Amino acid sequence: MTPGGDQWEQVAAAIGARMDSLHLSKADLIRESGITRPTLNAYLAGKPIVSNKKAWALCTALGWTDDSIDRILRGGQPAARAAGMQDDTGLRLADTDDLMLLLDDLQLQQRSVIDETGRRARDN
Hints:
The protein is mainly alpha-helical. The protein has two domains: 6-73, lambda repressor-like DNA-binding domains (434 Repressor (Amino-terminal Domain), Orthogonal Bundle), CATH 1.10.260; 83-124. Helices cover 65% and strands 0% of the residues. It contains six helices and no strands. It has helices at 6-22, 26-33, 37-44, 52-62, 68-73, 93-123.
């Protein structure tokens, strides 16, 4: 994300307008994007988004392409994400979402095994 003074106010306005057009509440957008309420409030107040990960999550939740915030900062408009659109890996985004859910499950299982191994080691 590039710094940009008044352009961040344009980003905030675009996010707010998109939320209105999608009938998304702040709670909805927080849930869909995974960002926190203070972070969303900061963005809606025109504070810069310095994390690409958060910007991309926000764009995805709003149905925009990953570069939409940069587009706004350059004076343009956000671009709508096409249905079935592919990410950089060539996978459809729905496939990527499924893979992320699987990864989350695997990480939880791994943490469970590590915790159980630690308990057994302490008990012996």
